[in-house]
């Protein structure tokens, strides 16, 4: 499968800059997490990739070629807001959408029934969408994105409103599609889920990409967090150490932040001077912590 690329995509609404030269790629067989605060530009970027919005400048490519209207029929899109016909039955709706993407009636029925079964909607297949719970509507929305066997998946907040079981089902489906070679990009505010699922992550702030890479790559240059368990240590034992900031200092446990390049041996020596040290290890910042640091400049 080819890659999906956004290259210097820009969009303005009057004086408001929605996107300012946004560039990133979603590789074949990759789960790419697209994260940012509300209003950062995620949905705008996705809609431009789909051709729903026109960019002021820049280009969207698939397989190295500019995306055409025909290529867009190969994209599976799941919008954050519900995009379904509320009074239409689940099965009828999925068959109709599959046929719109070029499947024959028999192919559309087979695919619709397959995804209805895979997503646990068998008992609701003949129900109107408006009679389903929000979680089941979300499952139908995912089925609608998958029913035509897309070459690319673009999902805007696909996990919103789902219970843990539905999250597991959807996660398994997305991983399966990526494993088959499909580029999968999704936005989400559930950063623990993004960290667990995604191969790479892109962080957008005020219409600009501020970080792209795996969590390991993005945290490689971050300040190191050090956990020290020294039962005999008095509060404040690490306050005067160079290049060290005390994040928490509880009886017997201290969490420190070391500036990049700071040697941890003086910290260990200072801890040992208080008595036995039962734990001394570095912790990688979580994606949530990285996100807070990266977007601290705020969004429009």
Automatic annotation (TrEMBL):
It holds the Pfam family ABC_tran. The keyword Flavoprotein does not apply. One of its GO terms (molecular function) is ATP binding. PROSITE patterns: ABC_TRANSPORTER_1 (PS00211), ABC_TRANSPORTER_2 (PS50893). Residues 4-231 form the ABC transporter domain. SUPFAM superfamilies: P-loop containing nucleoside triphosphate hydrolases. Keywords: ATP-binding, Nucleotide-binding, Transport. InterPro entries: AAA+_ATPase, ABC_transporter-like_ATP-bd, ABC_transporter-like_CS, DrrA1/2-like_C, P-loop_NTPase. PANTHER family: ABC TRANSPORTER, ATP-BINDING PROTEIN. Belongs to the ABC transporter superfamily. This is ATP-binding cassette domain-containing protein. The lineage of its organism: Bacteria, Bacillati, Actinomycetota, Actinomycetes, Pseudonocardiales.
């Amino acid at each position: 499968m080819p890659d999906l690329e956004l290259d210097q995509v820009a969009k303005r609404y009057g004086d408001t800059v929605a996107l300012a030269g946004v560039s990133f790629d979603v590789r074949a067989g990759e789960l790419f997490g697209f994260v940012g605060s509300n209003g950062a530009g995620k949905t705008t970027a996705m809609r431009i990739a789909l051709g729903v919005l026109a960019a002021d400048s820049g280009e969207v490519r698939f397989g190295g070629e500019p995306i055409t209207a025909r290529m867009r029929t190969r994209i599976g899109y799941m919008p954050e807001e519900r995009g379904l016909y509320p009074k239409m039955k689940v099965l009828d709706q999925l068959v109709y959408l599959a046929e719109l993407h070029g499947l024959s009636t028999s192919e559309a029925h087979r695919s619709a029934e397959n995804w209805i079964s895979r997503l646990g909607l068998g008992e609701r297949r003949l129900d109107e969408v408006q009679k389903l719970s929000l979680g089941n509507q979300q499952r139908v929305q995912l089925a609608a994105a998958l029913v035509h066997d897309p070459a690319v998946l673009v999902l805007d907040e696909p996990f919103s409103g789902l219970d843990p079981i539905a999250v597991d089902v959807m996660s398994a489906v997305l991983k399966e599609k990526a494993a088959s070679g499909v580029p999968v990009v999704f936005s989400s505010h559930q950063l623990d889920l993004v960290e667990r699922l995604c191969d790479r992550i892109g962080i957008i702030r005020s219409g600009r990409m501020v970080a792209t890479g795996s969590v390991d790559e993005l945290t490689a240059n971050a300040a190191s967090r050090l956990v020290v368990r020294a039962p005999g240590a008095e509060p404040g034992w690490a306050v005067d150490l160079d290049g060290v900031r005390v994040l928490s200092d509880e009886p017997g446990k201290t969490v420190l932040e070391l500036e990049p390049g700071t040697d941890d041996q003086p910290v260990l020596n200072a801890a040992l001077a208080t008595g036995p040290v039962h734990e001394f290890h570095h912790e990688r910042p979580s994606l949530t912590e990285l996100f807070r640091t990266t977007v601290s400049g705020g969004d429009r």
